[in-house]
TrEMBL record:
Gene3D superfamilies the record matches: Tetratricopeptide repeat domain
Subcellular locations according to the entry: Nucleus
Repeat found in the keyword field: yes
Suppressor of forked domain ranges (all copies): 8-134
Main location per the UniProt record: nucleus
GO cellular component: nucleus
Name of the protein this chain belongs to: Suppressor of forked domain-containing protein
SUPFAM superfamilies assigned to the protein according to its UniProt record, in alphabetical order: TPR-like
InterPro entries: HAT, Rna14-like, Suf, TPR-like_helical_dom_sf
Family matches, as Pfam families: Suf
Keywords: Nucleus, Repeat
One Gene Ontology term of the molecular function aspect: mRNA binding
Organism: Cladocopium goreaui
GO biological process: mRNA 3'-end processing
Length: 185
């Protein structure tokens, strides 16, 4: 713990991963410590450990790291002031999706991969919605209108029917005068 506080932990972690290269917990601790120091360093640690140790917990940690470092337009976990820790390691949505794709390819059949699958599907849905919003900006408004009124055609008919009745009453009054309207009612 003293090494972690003084910033001398990197050589300790390096020795530990050389002695125990398949110890996922050591790699995870090293990556978390590296992220606190510098996100580029953490990315290097993750790239090294994921090649050697295909561990579900390491992959989950890496995927959470990639989501935390998404560009501001896509990141739900961004800081309140809109800044990130390190601008050089901001990921695009496509890069995060590629990371999830790699994780699914390696660990997709594992029974513990359900959170990876659900996050991946949520990201795919988000990417699709962003694409649709970009291609058709009116789609959001149309979606809101449909959400408010499940049957807009019937509503339009009812509204138009009332308006047409008002127009017919106006035509009768203009053509025959007010007296004819009184007798019609």
């Amino acid at each position: 713990m003293v090494f972690l506080q003084e910033g001398k932990a990197e050589p300790v972690f390096e020795r530990a991963v050389k002695q125990l290269p398949f110890a996922a917990r050591i790699w995870a601790a090293y990556a978390e410590w590296s992220e606190m120091q510098d996100s580029a360093m953490a990315l290097g640690v993750y790239s090294r450990c994921l090649q050697q140790v295909p561990n579900m917990d390491l992959w989950l940690s890496y995927l959470n790291f990639s989501k935390r470092h998404q560009k501001p337009g896509f990141n739900a976990n961004a800081r309140a002031d809109g800044t990130h820790r390190d601008e050089s390691t901001q990921w695009t949505l496509e890069e995060v999706l590629r990371s999830y794709g790699r994780a699914i390819d390696l660990l997709g059949s594992d029974w513990r991969a359900a959170p990876v699958w659900s996050d991946y599907l949520a990201l795919l849905k988000h990417a699709y919605n962003l694409k649709q919003k970009k291609e058709n900006p009116d789609a959001e408004l149309q979606g809101k209108l449909l959400a408010e009124d499940p049957n807009p055609i019937d509503t339009a008919k009812r509204t138009l029917k009332k308006e047409l009745q008002k127009v017919q009453v106006c035509r009768i009054t203009k053509a025959f005068g007010w007296e004819a309207l009184q007798y019609a009612i």
